[in-house]
Amino acid sequence: MVLINENFLQLQNSYLFSTIAQKRAAYQAAHPEAGIISLGIGDVTQPLCPAVVAAMHEAVNEMAQAATFRGYGPEQGYDFLRQAILEHDYLARGVTLDEDEIFISDGSKSDTGNIGDILGAANVVAITDPVYPVYVDTNVMAGREIKILPTNASNGFCAVPPDFHTDVVYLCSPNNPTGTVLNREQLTAWVDYAKREGALLLFDAAYKAFITDPELPQSIYEIPGAKECAIEFCSFSKTAGFTGTRCAFAVVPKALMGQTAAGEKVSLNALWNRRHTTKFNGTPYIVQRGAAAIYTPEGKAQVQQTLAYYRENAKLIKSALTDLGFTCFGGEHSPYVWLEAPAGMTSWDFFDLLLEQLNVVGTPGSGFGPSGEGYFRLTAFGSHEQTAEAIERFRNYFGKK
Amino acid sequence: MVLINENFLQLQNSYLFSTIAQKRAAYQAAHPEAGIISLGIGDVTQPLCPAVVAAMHEAVNEMAQAATFRGYGPEQGYDFLRQAILEHDYLARGVTLDEDEIFISDGSKSDTGNIGDILGAANVVAITDPVYPVYVDTNVMAGREIKILPTNASNGFCAVPPDFHTDVVYLCSPNNPTGTVLNREQLTAWVDYAKREGALLLFDAAYKAFITDPELPQSIYEIPGAKECAIEFCSFSKTAGFTGTRCAFAVVPKALMGQTAAGEKVSLNALWNRRHTTKFNGTPYIVQRGAAAIYTPEGKAQVQQTLAYYRENAKLIKSALTDLGFTCFGGEHSPYVWLEAPAGMTSWDFFDLLLEQLNVVGTPGSGFGPSGEGYFRLTAFGSHEQTAEAIERFRNYFGKK
Q: Where are the N6-(pyridoxal phosphate)lysine modifications (chains A, B) (predicted)?
């Protein structure tokens, strides 16, 4: 009988979101009158902007005529999208990249998982905690040793370089789930660490569009030397509401090298290009046209309008909870507010309290890893009305004490 | 410095299509007046059918309104598409499957590559020759031992089970590049082999829509026992012109088991579900709506019209070349005609002759593997006009002799 990849048997099952759904459903069944509000989802709710919609309609029409029909496109993505990314995501921030350093894909979840294909199984991987579980699971599947880098209130939930060697480090900034953002100094410390240790940084910038402070880097390549030590993952999911439309890109600089066990240097760009062209056949033309539309003047303005909508929710949640005495992280350049549960309560205790007393659903921090225990994630992706109502319930309940 | 996956260094570079492009460009530059016709591409040219276009426009409109907007969908695909597949691809042919055995994806290239993630590196993999190179390359990347199963004129370019053990067998029927189709008896022999040897069949049915003979199976599951030994890959690329729109599906039956080295049995469906939900985030909603439209009565009729267009080309190519004395395979339930080069000519000799004497471009069979030497692939994906003109040139040149 065919042999399986036994590393899969080491994966931990995550019951986080199914447990949340079950608890919510059970409460609703017992209290049919309760108007439950969810501030728990990590998914966008606002529609695609008009520029994207128009571009996709136009692309669908192109596919309907033989003269403009598009079959297989370049696996790495169309020039029109890669050039727009080079100009608006990078050159506008002082970062010069070549087109063949940009790889369009169907999502950063795919990219951050698949990147492991080009890396040796013997690399030791550092993963911050709490964390987006895909980094952990994909490395367990590959059989790699994982070292946990705890983040907590003492380091402001911002990962700091460890005092030991690792080969690969996953960083996510603005962070999911904690909403914290690494500033220039913190990123520089990571680039210094990578250079010193010969480590590869895998920088997940999926939430970069939420950054408003011009001093905060939106790309790791704004840090000198990062092109020699970092791969960056960006996505249209949270930037432009593409969670159900699927488009993202990875940046693999040509200056980035890996090595064989014998010390022979090999270009990671060449390896990723081979992986990407062998195991992937490109992102839909229609979707790439939609993505490119966010770089037009009207598209830019429309995307910012939607981002502003979510930012307003984040600001309301953070300021109200801070006023109520909660210790909060994130919420400023991020759609996520990460708050400390009241003293003595676990994440799940607090979940139950919010569900039962406020009829508000959030995400227990312990579901993102052990360092999340005692913390809780609220998200800004709801409607203004529901977010305001949820905050009102927080005020009524916690303001009275 | 980070360690690379050294298996990548064992990959052979393929210069097949770049060499074709270079030779064509050089000839065109030297003979600007030559009207070169390509019958070499494996990509569709006819537009998406009206039912698909309408469904995608409607889906784009849904994404433009908050009330109908879709964020993250189920990674395995939406019910509406999985149910349509169950009914029209399987139940209509007497095959009963459950919805959770169907996994919607962005392409069979991704699926046939990624499936290796759930399989052990120690499996011995059998690959027919000549072959679609992705099967080989993705297994080289994973470091697996590969055994080649040659096909040739003596077995009608139809792979037959070997007299030695293998753990995994890739089969493609209708075949790319040879255009040959495995009939019920041949598929039964493979299922018997798989059962006897405990092997897993990876059955690539990307070209099944070209089958017209009702006696020929379109799914491996039409063979009793196949659910216990086969994974099937299907695609909308060639069925409905989705090469640039990207939608496919894999079928992983729940009856299918793998095992650990210690002999513990593990469900491959469960492993693939974990892989698919961890390293993939679903196919675009818009694209899934487009794919589902091919199962409506008007969609079905329109798709058949386009397939008939290509079939007419295939029929013309095959009958004309046969009349001219060429030995041909495929072309009947397939868009590919596989022909023997004139005696004493290599595949590349024949390529040069066709380019220079007929101004027709095809694909040298040797580019698909050593058993393709002396053979040549022509495709039915061109326009009627260009195909007819190319055939006229064949008649003028080879008919004179």
A: 238
- A277 at interface of B, judged by CB pairs closer than 8 A: no
Residue bearing tokens 């889906």? B59
Contact A60 B64 (CB under 8 A): no
pLDDT for B219-236, tens place per residue?
Answer: 999 999 999 999 999 999
Q: Is B43 on the interface with A (CB under 8 A)?
A: yes
The minimal CB distance from B48 to the residues A63, A119, A261 is found for: A63
| A18 and B CB contact within 8 Å | no
CB contact under 8 Å between B260 and A3, yes or no, is: yes
Write down the pTM of the prediction.
Answer: 0.97
Nearest CA in chain B to A201: B2
The percent of residues above 70 in pLDDT, for chain A, comes to 100
Pull the structure tokens for residue A356: 């039962």
Tell whether B234 is within 8 A of chain A (Cβ). Answer: no
From B114's Cα to the closest Cα of chain A, the distance in A is 7
CA angle A271–A272–A278, rounded 5-degree value: 95
Q: Give the mean pLDDT of chain A.
A: 97
Residues of chain B with pLDDT under 70: 400-401
**A123 chain-B contacts, CB cut-off 8 A:** 2-3
Which of the residue ranges A13-22, A67-76, A350-359, B345-354 would you say has the lowest mean pLDDT? Answer: A13-22
Q: Please state, in angstroms and as integers, the Cα–Cα distance from residue B354 to each residue in A136, B28, B63, B321, B330, following that order.
A: 54, 13, 49, 13, 20
List CB contacts (< 8 A) between B137 and chain A. 278
pLDDT of residue A76: 97
CA A166/CA A160 separation, integer angstroms? 13
C-alpha B113/C-alpha B242 separation (Å) is 19
Across A206-215, average pLDDT: 97
Question: What is the pLDDT, as a whole number, of residue A42?
Answer: 87
Q: HEC string of chain B?
A: CCEECHHHHHCCCCCHHHHHHHHHHHHHHHCCCCCCEECCCCCCCCCCCHHHHHHHHHHHHHHCCCCCCCCCCCCCCCHHHHHHHHHHHHHHHCCCCCHHHEEEECCHHHHHHHHHHHECCCCEEEEEECCCHHHHHHHHHCCCEEEEEECCHHHCCCCCCCCCCCCEEEEECCCCCCCCCCCHHHHHHHHHHHHHHCCEEEEECCCHHHCCCCCCCCCHHHCCCHHHCEEEEEECHHHHCCCCCCCEEEECCCCCEEECCCCCEEEHHHHHHHHHHHCCCCCCHHHHHHHHHHHCHHHHHHHHHHHHHHHHHHHHHHHHHHHCCCCEEECCCCCEEEEECCCCCCHHHHHHHHHHHHCEECEEHHHHCHHHCCEEEEECCCCHHHHHHHHHHHHHHHCCC
Residue pLDDT, tens place only, A257-316: 999 999 999 999 999 999 999 999 999 999 999 999 999 999 999 999 999 999 999 999
- Give the per-residue pLDDT at A151: 97
Subunit contact B3:A279, Cβ cutoff 8 A? no
- Cα separation, A185 vs A175, in Å, equals 16
